[in-house]
Specification:
With 422 residues, this protein is mainly α. The chain has two domains: 206 residues, Clc chloride channel, CATH 1.10.3080; 214 residues, Clc chloride channel (Orthogonal Bundle). It is built from 16 helices and two strands. It has a two-stranded parallel sheet. The longest helix has 49 residues. The N and C termini lie far apart (51 Å).
């Protein structure tokens, strides 16, 4: 009896400890991510007002130079660095790199680079959490857990989706494994962070759009299966094309500054002669698709190309916002194939399924569907997301992910390997 009481005390104090820690992480990360997004918005408006997009090639060269000179590129790019830090360095992240990561992201996006804002937000969350954890001498799994809290809070703050963001921060580390001991602190930090951003900064997010999901029927169930196959193929192509550009950038490292300039000029030509829709974050396009607007069939492919040029030749930023762009415009392509079909429904499936297929996060993606579209969307979105997840095999835009299960036994790679080693 005495031992049981002692165990309950240990559990109780551990619970209280993590509630306090994760709430504090959520407050700090929510505030800092909110400040970052405000500065980013002001920068974008300033560049647009003064029509300074022609400076993009120089911005890519500057970002390339500072990354090579001051940042450790061996861990990968953006969110990949945070994932690799958890797997390879026990959650230890150098916070001194954070200001430069944020600065180069703001410059890249503001001057028209095609990239997302979630990666620096995850880096803010992970770096701040790691710093706080190391300051209070947290070690081992406790330090990893607090960094996971920071990642989830960072993602959640950007999109206003606390549950999906919390799960994403846990699920993105492994292919096929969840760290259940991080669930409660990750949920708390994400919920707190989202509400801090909402109360103090009142920024728009993904949940502002109203999605009208159809009632369940086997017809729409069948459509969801076909959609999962289609979006899985798009996800696979996205990863392959992005990696093609990445591998080429490694081959021309000695002339990387020249290729940064060339990439910048190519982006300017695309924006001038095709559309400025492909510049920056692109969430305005995502919202247009959710409101029923149909875009040309080449939009997903051209966004993949502009994103690949930006991030592989000097620019800094995230991949999730572009994934939403590619997924939503792929949804409009599918709606033209299924003539007369609800485009908003297919657009939402596209957003969810591209996220699942490219990042190996089917659970977080399915929960995201509920947070932006309600429970009626859940059966369709979850089926489409899981199929997309399976079709991409052992591939991911985050090559630092660790394979914790094989999707199909005969696929290459073994459990415990990082994706980049497969």
């Amino acid at each position: 009896m005495k031992r049981k009481i002692q165990e309950q005390k240990i559990l109780f104090f551990s619970l209280i400890r993590w509630v306090i820690i994760s709430s504090f992480i959520g407050l700090i990360v929510g505030f800092l991510v909110g400040v970052f997004m405000k500065i980013l918005n002001i920068s974008i408006i300033s560049v647009e007002r003064n029509n300074l997009f022609y400076l993009l090639p120089l911005i890519l060269v500057f970002s390339n130079f500072t990354s090579k000179k001051f940042l450790d590129e061996s861990q990968g790019h953006g969110t990949d660095k945070i994932i690799d830090s958890i797997h390879s360095k026990g959650g230890k992240i150098n916070i001194l790199n954070l200001p430069l990561e944020v600065l180069t992201t703001i410059l890249t996006i503001a001057f028209g680079g095609s990239a997302g804002k979630e990666s620096p937000s995850a880096q803010i969350g992970g770096s701040i959490a790691s710093f706080i954890g190391q300051f209070f001498n947290l070690k081992g799994d406790d330090l990893k857990k607090i960094v996971i809290c920071g990642i989830g809070a960072g993602f959640s703050s950007v999109f206003g989706t606390p549950i999906a963001g919390a799960i994403f921060g846990i699920e993105v580390l492994f292919v096929g494994k969840l760290l259940y001991d991080a669930l409660l602190p990750s949920f708390i930090s994400s919920i707190v962070a989202v509400n801090v951003v909402h109360l103090l900064f009142n920024l728009e997010n993904l949940t502002d759009s109203v999605v009208n999901a159809p009632s369940f029927s086997f017809y729409y169930f069948f459509i969801s299966i076909l959609s999962g196959i289609f979006f899985g193929i798009v996800s696979y192509l996205f990863i392959e094309i992005f990696n093609l550009f990445k591998n080429f950038s490694f081959k021309v490292q000695k002339k990387s500054y020249i290729f940064s300039l060339l990439a910048g000029f190519v982006l300017i030509l695309i924006y001038k002669f095709v559309s400025r829709d492909f510049s920056g974050i692109g969430m305005n396009i995502v919202k247009d698709t959710l409101n029923g607007k149909i875009f040309p069939f080449y939009y997903p492919l051209l966004k993949i190309i502009t994103l690949s040029l930006t991030l592989n030749f000097g620019g800094n930023g995230g991949l999730i916002n572009p994934i939403f762009f590619i997924g939503s415009t792929s949804g409009t392509v599918l709606s033209t194939i299924f003539q007369g079909e609800n485009s908003q429904f297919l657009v939402t499936l596209g957003i969810i399924s591209l996220l699942s297929g490219t990042t190996n996060t089917p659970l977080a993606s399915s929960i995201l569907a509920i947070e932006i579209g309600g429970p009626k969307l859940a059966p369709f979105a979850s089926i489409s997301a899981i199929i997309s997840f399976l079709i991409t095999g052992h591939k991911s835009i985050y090559t630092s992910q660790v394979l914790a299960m094989k999707k199909v036994e005969n696929l290459s790679g073994k459990v415990g390997d990082q994706i980049k080693g497969i």
